[in-house]
Amino acid sequence: MLADVLGAGDALRVPGSVRARYEAIDGQVRPGFEAESDLVNLRTTVFAEYDFGGLRVGGELYDSRAYGGDMRTPISTNEVNTAELVQAYVAADWSAPFGAGTHASVQAGRFLMNLGSRRLVAADDYRNTTNSYTGVRADLTARDGVKATAFYVLPQVRLPDDLPSVLDNRTRTDRESDDLVLFGGLVSKANAFAGLMVEGTYVRLEEQDAPGRPTRNRSLDTYGARLIRDPKPGALDGEVEVLRQTGSIRSGLGPSDRMLDVSAEFVHADVGYSFRSAWAPHVVAEFDYASGDDGAASYGRFDTLFGMRRADFAPAGLYNAVSRSNLVSPGLRLEVTPNRRWDAFVSGRLMWLASDLDSFATTGVRDPLGRSGDDAGGQIDARVRWWVVPDRLRFEADGVWLSKGSFLR
Hints:
The chain has two helices and 18 strands. It is an all-beta fold. The protein has an 18-stranded antiparallel sheet that branches. Strand 11 and strand 12 (about 235-250) form a beta hairpin. The model has no long low-confidence stretch (mean pLDDT about 95).
């Protein structure tokens, strides 16, 4: 190991990864792109952190590239961000600052961040690129399972973001500025009652136009409450999360476009059961609701901010059709783990529009007159993973089938 060669022992960590993924799509649902396309995604990461004993210094390089696309391929900075230092931070840790069983830490600089359910703020791992943030974060672990997080960050804008540069895998340093600010906090308590963890979240997004980069001037407050019971063999588990979003947004990108009040909601609920049997089957019934805009005086489309997609819905990349916007979707999921090297799941869900006047999820498909109905169809999503060499090399295969409803045909 590099740490042993340098004589740093356990104080230095230098993990890395290389991921190669081939994806193909037939019957693209998003307008403006070719019906059939394929893409090769490559991602290389190198992370390094040195622990001086209560003080840590770390950094991480991401090199995300894509090959095989053209001007009609759905490719963007979600796939390409080359030679980018997504982490460069200093962090301080304190053990027992408020007595036994407590811990505190502060991190400053550029870093990755996952909060709570990751539905609002996440460092997306399935996607070829990740979300990075510059600012400060503080975490506190108190007694009796209470944890708290507060943060003030400037989300990174991945560059370059023009299509020719993305197709050529060009390199340009990402930027942050006070034109896009994210701050808030989270408090949770494990085993609050009946074996449930209770969590409360507040996230504020402030956005304004930057030179050469018009925006919708989002000013969003998102309040959340969450209950969760983790899976255990022979027991019921479940999760309920409710998010309420208010604030304001501009009706378009023009500086003279009028401002609209925001009133949007998101709900996720699931209940599952883990069987005590071979393959450890876990069966889950789940439901997601994300409001859409119905053309009323207030803007009703829910904004998932920097949230993840894969764990709840389906892969990003060429498909990238289903997300937490204008969606009503019940579903069933089966997860199995035959052994420590294999795991798999298959899920099926039905999908409707919450508002038939708004575009469905992230498809970009919209009927402004509302004459196409609200049936988006059904989706089957499956994945299998195998550790070819335990903890060193893993194979993964994913497949999604979308049966288009009347709205998407």
